[in-house]
Amino acid sequence: xxxxxxxxxxxxxxxxxxxxxxxxxxxxxxxxxxxxxxxxxxxxxxxxxxxxxxxxxxxxxxxxxxxxxxxxxxxxxxxxxxxxxxxxxxxxxxxxxxxxxxxxxxxxxxxxxxxxxxxxxxxxxxxxxxxxxxxxxxxxxxxxxxxxxxxxxxxxxxxxxxxxxxxxxxxxxxxxxxx
Length: 179
What we know:
elongated
């Protein structure tokens, strides 16, 4: 009997070590990810944020947990976040979307992947988000679009000028022939 209890205790201790090790791995991944990662319950209260979230928004995990987007962000931004979260939970599937968030240097654009998290009975209890800052890419797209529009305008103007010059040359040629 004592041998069985010791074997059970050893097995429990081994499982606990595995759980601690898995937890430490997950924490390391979260803390070293360059994306903003967060989990919110069905009522929109933050359950977890990663180090990148803390650094970008200058907020500690302990001050965020339990708060909603409306307690952290401007109302118009919080409304969008909550609407997107509710949509993910309603559709019960992952979604990818663009979202904006304020920073000291201005509003940044993020591509966010949000998905429901499930308990053991397959009931969704939270939404998880992984958001990557794409502000630099959006700015580059804007610059490229501006260059493209200017190039198209220049090509159109040159084409019109060439067409006019061609017509003038043809007219001068006809005049010369008539003379």
